[in-house]
Fold this sequence. Notes:
Elements: H1 2-9, H2 30-36, H3 40-53, H4 59-73, H5 77-87
Helix pairs in contact: 3-4
Amino acid sequence: MLSSFNVLxxxxxxxxxxxxxINHIIRPPHFPQEICETSPMSCMLNRNMIIRNGHNTSxxxxxxxxxxxxxxxxxxxxxxxxxxxxxxxxxxQFPMDPFKDSPDWFPWWxxxxxxxxx
Length: 118
């Protein structure tokens, strides 16, 4: 997240500008590539937490869901593959499928009924 903040705001932020040399910042085209190289399972959980935890969710409830996600993801095959690929300096081949391997507590939100009550 810091790289995206630096790219977008370093030149206007009085807190960051004196510390960061604008010429050494990662340029924006690298940021989407970084996202595409992330585990699909992790992306799916993060996307749903962003969408679902922003509205009608208390900070405490959001924290509990995030903690449960971090605990679960850290013990899965994608996490192990990410660590091994980093240590071996090779691209990761994440084995998990978000549609087949999602946690048993997913989805965690309650669906709102949109059925007409007339």
